[in-house]
């Protein structure tokens, strides 16, 4: 039974799928402190949060069973990703579920700003009939959108319908896409100097922190208005207050703050030209259901070891590519497991070569399975596809991936070579054979045909008459039943290998006895657990 802790208020309807799952027990405990979380987290396999819970290294350190942290929303700045990756904890988010809701909030903030709606409301309900509030139209105004991702693009579409001219900047915005969205591709400087309204929709990163600060306010169009429904810190709060005081900025609308919640004396909270909401961008019934449904579904997949999407601490891969790669994951990992047992020296480089059907696909996820296989028997702690690449960096292991079309007659081929620090190499290649599943087809320089399952004995010997008989007799004497046997050699009488599939594990004593046979150089037990 998997246990999942929901530590923030998350839509019940959204997590229904998790609560209904027969193999999952869900505990809802919103509002716990870090210390309280540290106390209870060891019993959980999954943690579901919104933005209130700060998932710190200390919590992950205590969460020895944690496999997945699900963020019901987009931003994962409340989760220590580095700590999660190091521990192999998969972090997933729900990037699409609140896009429209947040876009609508940003748009509502822009309209409220243009027409002083919160200020007028406050006066009216206080008994004051103040008709001096004079707004501006959106029509024919220039809107600058910084960050044309999911939310920024939706804002631009709506602004178009309002008759605004839109300048968009995003390092990933192409001319084509800008044209499709009816947006003029601009530089940050164009936007700063020409926009009547600016709205920011980037993540908070070292590059975007204070991307609008004093130098930018100094060159802005007098009377412009600015909206931040993305992340506190993208706009320098103190510089904004100064720009309002100097009459450069006519008004600002903020849903997010550098520190949340802001202190009671935060200068935004008593400034009549700044309207604020308490990080409500994603707060609609629809968005909260959507993100909770998305994230619950992925958490279930991860707990059940099924393919999943939206991992934040792994590179994104298109679903079509994932479907193509998925059948190879088991083979890739087994090649790695095989090599990790064959190899007996410090690894400097892992070279993965993909051929045939795999030559033109983005094979990054598959490489992670191979590396996981190579490392998992040697590293303390959980090695998985989230932390496997990270672990190679920590251990200074170079990973080289190549793709080639030469398949040596196979429709697909994965060849993995471990290079040791003395330059020695071990190689295992495998393929997926239609109707037969995973097969190992090469070990070092020897062609073989072995199913990577259960227990194998790998023997290197000199190709001399009688050796197969000696091995069979010795194993029989020790009650080890041979299910199949493969012999590989390059030259008659030269170096050779033997791979035996046996029904059970072989003891070290049996291996030692095998090694003492004439012409036998080495015998190893290989296990695919
Ligand atoms: N207020 C809320 O409740 C709320 C809700 C949802 C999302 N958000 C926040 O809104 C922001 C946007 O979310 P999204 O879903 O559209 O994300 P997204 O990833 O789809 O888009 C972000 C875009 O920002 C662009 N970008 C990155 N650095 C940039 C830079 N230096 N200059 C210009 N553009 C840059 C990226 O290329 C990307 O296209 C995020 O910060 C997210 O956390 C807030
Ligand atoms: O959970 C929330 O309400 C905040 C959501 C928002 O900031 C996000 O990044 O998705």
UniProtKB/TrEMBL annotation:
Concerning Pfam families, the annotation shows: 2-Hacid_dh (PF00389), 2-Hacid_dh_C (PF02826), ACT (PF01842), PGDH_inter (PF19304)
Q: Does the keyword NAD apply?
A: yes
Would you say which domain of life the source belongs to? Bacteria
EC class, as a word, reads: oxidoreductase
Biological process (GO) annotations held by this record are:
L-serine biosynthetic process
User: Which pathway is this protein engaged in?
Assistant: Amino-acid biosynthesis; L-serine biosynthesis; L-serine from 3-phospho-D-glycerate: step 1/3
InterPro entries (alphabetical) = ACT-like_dom_sf, ACT_dom, ASB_dom_sf, D-2-hydroxyacid_DH, D-isomer_2_OHA_DH_cat_dom, D-isomer_DH_CS, D-isomer_DH_CS1, D-isomer_DH_NAD-bd
Reaction(s) catalysed by this chain's protein: (R)-2-hydroxyglutarate + NAD(+) = 2-oxoglutarate + NADH + H(+); (2R)-3-phosphoglycerate + NAD(+) = 3-phosphooxypyruvate + NADH + H(+)
> What residue stretches are annotated with the ACT domain?
456-529
The record, for Gene3D superfamilies, names: 3.30.70.260, D-3-phosphoglycerate dehydrogenase, domain 3, NAD(P)-binding Rossmann-like Domain
Q: What does the UniProt keyword field contain?
A: Amino-acid biosynthesis, NAD, Oxidoreductase, Serine biosynthesis
Q: In the record, what terms sit under GO molecular function?
A: NAD binding; phosphoglycerate dehydrogenase activity
The EC number of this protein is: 1.1.1.95
**Carries keyword NAD?**
yes
Similarity comment: Belongs to the D-isomer specific 2-hydroxyacid dehydrogenase family.
Outline what the protein does.
Catalyzes the reversible oxidation of 3-phospho-D-glycerate to 3-phosphonooxypyruvate, the first step of the phosphorylated L-serine biosynthesis pathway. Also catalyzes the reversible oxidation of 2-hydroxyglutarate to 2-oxoglutarate.
The entry's protein name is D-3-phosphoglycerate dehydrogenase
Q: What is the lineage of its organism?
A: Bacteria, Bacillati, Bacillota, Bacilli, Bacillales
């Amino acid at each position: 039974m998997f246990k999942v802790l929901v530590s923030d208020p998350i839509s019940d309807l959204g997590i229904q799928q998790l609560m209904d799952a027969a193999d999952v027990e869900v505990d809802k405990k919103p509002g716990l402190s870090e210390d309280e979380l540290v106390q209870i987290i060891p019993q959980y396999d999954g943690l579901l949060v919104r933005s209130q819970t700060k998932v710190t290294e200390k919590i992950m350190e205590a969460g020895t069973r944690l496999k997945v942290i699900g963020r019901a929303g987009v931003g994962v700045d409340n989760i220590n990703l580095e700590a999660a990756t190091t521990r192999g904890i998969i972090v997933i988010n729900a990037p699409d579920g609140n896009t429209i809701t947040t876009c609508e909030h940003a748009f509502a903030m822009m309209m409220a700003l243009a027409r002083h709606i919160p200020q007028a409301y406050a006066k009216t309900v206080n008994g004051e009939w103040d008709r001096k509030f004079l707004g501006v139209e959106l029509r024919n105004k220039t809107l600058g959108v910084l960050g044309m991702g999911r939310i920024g693009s939706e804002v631009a579409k709506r602004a178009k319908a309002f008759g605004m001219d839109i300048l968009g900047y995003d390092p990933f915005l192409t001319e084509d896409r800008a044209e499709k969205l009816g947006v003029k591709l601009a530089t940050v400087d164009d936007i700063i100097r020409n926009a009547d309204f600016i709205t920011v929709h980037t993540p908070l990163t070292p590059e975007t922190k204070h991307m609008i600060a004093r130098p930018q306010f100094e060159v802005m169009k007098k009377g412009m208005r600015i909206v931040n429904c993305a992340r506190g810190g993208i706009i320098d709060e103190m510089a904004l207050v100064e720009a309002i005081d100097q009459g450069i900025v006519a008004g600002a609308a903020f849903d997010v703050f550098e520190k949340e919640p802001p202190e009671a004396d935060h200068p935004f909270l008593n400034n009549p030209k700044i309207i604020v909401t308490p990080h409500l961008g994603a707060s609609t019934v629809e968005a909260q259901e959507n993100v909770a449904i998305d994230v619950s579904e992925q958490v279930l997949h991860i707990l059940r070891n099924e393919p999943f999407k939206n991992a934040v601490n792994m590179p994104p891969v298109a679903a079509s590519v994932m479907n193509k790669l998925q059948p190879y994951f088991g083979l890739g990992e087994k090649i790695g497991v095989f090599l990790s047992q064959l190899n007996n020296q410090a690894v400097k480089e892992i070279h993965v070569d993909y051929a045939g059907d795999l030559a033109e696909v983005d094979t990054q996820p598959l490489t992670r399975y191979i590396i996981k296989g190579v490392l998992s028997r040697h590293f303390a702690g959980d090695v998985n596809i989230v932390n496997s690449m990270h672990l190679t960096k920590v251990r200074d292991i170079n990973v080289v991936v190549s793709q080639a079309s030469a398949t040596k007659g196979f429709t697909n081929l994965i060849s993995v070579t471990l290079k040791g620090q003395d330059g020695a190499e071990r190689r295992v290649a495998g393929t997926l054979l239609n109707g037969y599943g995973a097969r190992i087809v090469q070990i070092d320089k020897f062609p073989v045909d072995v199913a990577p399952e259960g227990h194998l004995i790998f023997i290197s010997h000199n190709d001399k008459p009688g050796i197969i008989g000696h091995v069979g007799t010795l194993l029989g004497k020790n009650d080890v039943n041979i299910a199949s046997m493969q012999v590989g050699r390059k030259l008659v009488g030269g170096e050779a290998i033997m791979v035996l599939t046996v029904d059970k594990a072989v003891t070290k004593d049996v291996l030692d006895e095998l090694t003492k046979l004439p012409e036998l150089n080495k015998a190893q037990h290989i296990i695919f657990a």
